[in-house]
Amino acid sequence: MIYLDNAATTKLCTPAYDAMVSCLTGNFGNPSSIHASGQKAAATLYRSREIIAACIGAEPSEITFTSGGTEADNQSILSAALSGAETGKKHIVSTAFEHHAVINTLKKLEKQGFEITFLDVSGPECGGEGVVSPEQVAGAIRPDTCLVTVMSANNEIGTIQPVGEIGRICREKGVSFHTDAVQTAGHLRINVREQNIDMLSLSAHKFGGPKGAGVIFARKGLKLSPLMEGGSQERGKRPGTENLPAIAGMAAALEYSCKNIDADADRMRKLQDRLIDGISAIPGSILSGDRVKRLPGNVHFCFEGIESETLLLLLDNKGICASAGSACVSGSLEPSHVLLAIGRTPEIALGALRLTLGPDNTPEEIDETVDAVRETVAKLRSLRGTLY
Fold first, then answer.
1. Domain count, the chain
2. Which of the listed residues 259, 278, 298 is the one where a domain comes to its end?
3. Residues 73, 157 within the same domain
4. Are the beta carbons of 179 and 36 closer than 8 angstroms?
5. What is the C-alpha to C-alpha distance for residues 158 and 183, in angstroms, rounded to an integer?
6. What tens digit of pLDDT does each residue of 252-294 get?
7. Both 227 and 313 in a single domain?
8. CATH code of the domain covering residue 176
């Protein structure tokens, strides 16, 4: 099997596994309990908070644990909206190709009287295909803007956004800035102070950690409103007993990823270029997103005259695990909103293929994948009578 769906989820890394086993066996106490077992668990919880904070340039008190990126996005955006509404500010700026955890939360707020500006990511004013420009953000901010939320990198086409410049603009204008960093954490360096980030979301299973664990960074002084009612865990910001094994695994995975981030990115980009060059040679193939401003390891193409579902099934039969885009909308018959946002027609968007690399992939696997994609695309086109 050649696994090329790391944007959907990654394999658990060894440091994360070891940390989780320790919590599942010997260190199984409830962090809120006052006895020795509970205090041992509480110490692990705090140490995990310290590790994650250090990895992104934050303070431990600014880290809140969640069940994943979706919950982190929801709570961050809804908290900022609530704070804004209290001062009469009910305008939010975002982009047209955010993750559904952001898009659907903003649509919910729209029904509650908020005005949402979704910035274009396909026009000449962008810094590249699928890249929002700082000038667009600056031009969209109004006196009643309470939040700007722009993802650090797109989860489908991998385009990297100018987060630091956007954060600087927001700070100058006194507007809170949130970024969904689910795809970048552990793969690109993050420093919330240097990048002027007020709130940030991340998810453990995107960088070698377990599923079901995530983080909100909220800058000191910002109010983070709980989504649920319950106990006083996470300083009253997220009730419910903390998932200590998952949190410890997440911290170990992020620390491990950040230690190896430069070497891994360099290796991944070489494989990525090899894959892009190979698939670009297939007639009727269209690279999605900016060639340079993209996550290491992300490759996304659309194929004229091809349907993604059939392509993916045939590649799976050849032992290649891939996707059309976000796993959150897998099985949808609708074209990707991300591809439509960058100007693809619905017909072209339905022929999408996302290949995302991981630490175990080899040059030989890349070459095998290129051959498999070329053969499968040619076969599907011949069945439809389409010539290229």
1. 2
2. 259
3. yes
4. no
5. 8
6. 999 999 999 999 999 999 999 999 999 999 999 999 999 999 9
7. no
8. 3.40.640.10
- Do the beta carbons of residue 19 and residue 248 sit within 8 Å? yes
For residue 304, pLDDT over 80 is answered with yes
Distance of alpha carbon 45 from alpha carbon 48, whole angstroms = 5
pLDDT of residue 128: 66
- SS3 string, 311-380, reads HHHHHHHCCEECECCCHHHCCCCCCCHHHHHCCCCHHHHCCEEEEECCCCCCHHHHHHHHHHHHHHHHHH
Our CA dihedral for 341, 125, 105, 322, rounded to 10 degrees, sits at: 40
Whether 36 and 67 map to the same domain: the answer is yes
Q: CB within 8 A of 314, min separation 6: which ones?
A: 376, 379, 380
User: Which entry of 146, 170, 302, 328 is annotated as an active-site residue?
Assistant: 328
- The one-letter amino acid code at 232 reads S
The whole-chain average pLDDT of the chain stands at: 95
Estimate to the nearest angstrom the gap between the alpha carbon of 243 and the chain centroid. Answer: 21
In Å, the largest CA–CA distance within the chain is 72
The residue segments making up the domain with residue 214 are 14-259
CA dist 81 and 187 (Å) reads: 29
What is the rounded CA–CA span in Å between residue 81 and residue 297?
34
Exposure string for 92-109, b = 16+ CB within 10 A, e = fewer: bbbbbbbbebbbebbeeb
Quick check: 225 and 79 in contact, CB under 8 A? Answer: yes
Reported pTM: 0.95
Both 253 and 344 in one domain: the answer is: no
Ramachandran area for residue 166 (φ above 0: left; ψ -120 to 50: alpha; else beta): alpha
Assess whether 55 carries a catalytic annotation: no
